[in-house]
Design a protein that fits this description.
about 25% helix; TIM Barrel; 21 strands
């Protein structure tokens, strides 16, 4: 039977609508580029200067937006819903591509494993390259941590080169755990398609701007993780427990580093992603997190509000600036006998109009040996009986079983803004 094609007016209208929608979709893709001028490097988004005021974040987006942030960093494509969440809050995304580190068992001498990973990540790139919230690509995270096979950089270069071919709108970045001369040289020579160096810098942030120049990295960089010194940099007790500063001290450290190190290098630094706009177990449950496990914001959130907006928030969290056990400060070793009575005192600052509650928790010391942000099991919480001496001082009985423990103090106001401090101690 002969078939006759009819150009129905409705069909023509639908085709036109589809074409317009496609054009609108393409128009939503922000063009991001790195430029160099007389004053240094600069990131442009649709032709406008874009300094990254970002956080490593998977939630609390309303507060993040209200605090003045404009971008989030995610570490892999496993949470692509965060692209939409960021877009809804007017923020951009540094999209991570998970390149397996050698320490997880990845063999970069195995051509099948290498090719399989690359081809899988290429499909992810094609899938998300046109998302309007995308700012840049972060190829891998800390593959240089305890690695020996330099071939991982060949994978980074192939992915960066592929992005250049299929996505002319978004720059490429790879992220390393701190900076040293060998890493700068390796990426500079083996990864020419990488536009930006992402640096996870904790204690090393103090020297990073100087070392960028000293180690001859000639492109811009972003602080992809920064905050307080990490557990791997912390002083330890005689029995090996890592000593964590009180939140109040950590907050002041964040504020100083943002002003002196991040804003202090406008020639090379394109911005930063503070760590962590959330909570995770890393030696303790409070070390890096800017929120408690219950989702309550700490004074670190107030600090970032001030860093990003230039103004102090009107409603602020309390702040524990000091903690001592049996009259000994948090920087020193604390040893107790089984069942001995201990006296814990905290020094807390808060707004005079606030009502602040203090809570206490006792945990066994974490035994995890995980590194580089790898998943750690949370230690066991133990029952503890607290007897108040005054508003900021309490008595408690130490556990009877020998070993390492850690006692936490939480200061919380009626808006559920918090501050935390802890002391590790040994029962011997």
């Amino acid at each position: 039977m002969e078939r006759i094609r009819v150009n129905h007016p409705l069909g023509v209208v639908l085709l036109l609508l589809f074409a317009v929608a496609a054009l609108q979709g393409n128009a939503q893709i922000a063009h991001v580029q790195v430029i160099q001028n007389q004053s240094g490097f600069q990131l442009l988004r649709d032709g406008e200067p874009y300094f990254i005021k970002g956080a490593g974040a998977k939630g609390h987006f309303d507060l993040l937006q209200a605090s003045g942030a404009n971008s989030i960093r995610i570490w892999s494509t496993s949470r692509v819903d965060l692209l939409d969440s960021a877009a809804q809050h007017g923020m951009t995304v540094s999209m991570g591509l998970y390149v397996r580190p050698e320490r997880t068992g990845m063999d970069y001498n195995d051509p099948y494993a290498v090719r399989g990973q690359i081809e899988q990540l290429k499909t992810e790139i094609l899938k998300y390259k046109d998302h309007p919230a995308l700012l840049l690509w972060g190829i891998g995270n800390e593959m240089d941590l305890r690695y020996a096979n330099f071939k991982v950089w060949d994978t980074v270069e192939e992915l960066a080169r592929f992005i250049k071919e299929v996505d002319p709108h978004h720059p490429t970045m790879t992220v390393i755990a701190g900076l040293d001369p060998s890493k700068a040289f390796m990426i500079k020579t083996r990864c020419p398609s990488v536009d930006i160096l992402g640096i996870n810098a904790y204690g090393s942030i103090e020297n990073t701007p100087a070392n960028i120049r000293k180690f001859n990295w000639d492109k811009p960089y972003i602080f992809t993780e920064w905050g307080v010194n990490g557990p791997f940099e912390a002083p330890r007790t005689a029995w090996g427990a890592k000593i964590e500063p009180p939140n109040g001290i950590k907050a002041k450290t964040r504020q100083r580093r943002y002003k002196d190190r991040i804003l202090g290098d406008p020639e090379r630094c394109l911005g930063s992603y503070c760590f962590l706009w959330g909570q995770k177990q890393e030696s303790t449950a409070t070390w890096h997190g800017m929120f408690t496990a219950e989702g309550h914001p700490t004074e670190a959130v107030d600090v970032m509000y001030q860093c990003w907006t230039g103004a102090r928030p009107e409603e602020r969290a309390p702040s524990i600036v000091d903690i001592e056990l049996n009259g000994i400060g948090w920087r020193k070793d604390h040893v107790m006998l089984p069942g001995e009575e201990g006296v814990l005192h905290v020094n807390v600052e808060w707004d005079v109009d606030d009502a602040v509650t203090l809570e206490y928790r006792l945990y066994r010391e974490s035994q995890s040996q995980a590194i580089g942000g790898d998943v750690q099991e949370e230690p066991e919480e133990l029952a503890i009986e607290i007897k108040s001496i005054d508003a900021t001082t309490v008595r408690f009985n130490a556990p009877k079983k020998e070993g390492g423990y850690r006692i936490f103090a939480f200061a919380r106001n009626e808006r559920n803004q918090c501050s935390v401090a802890n002391v590790p101690f040994l029962i011997n």
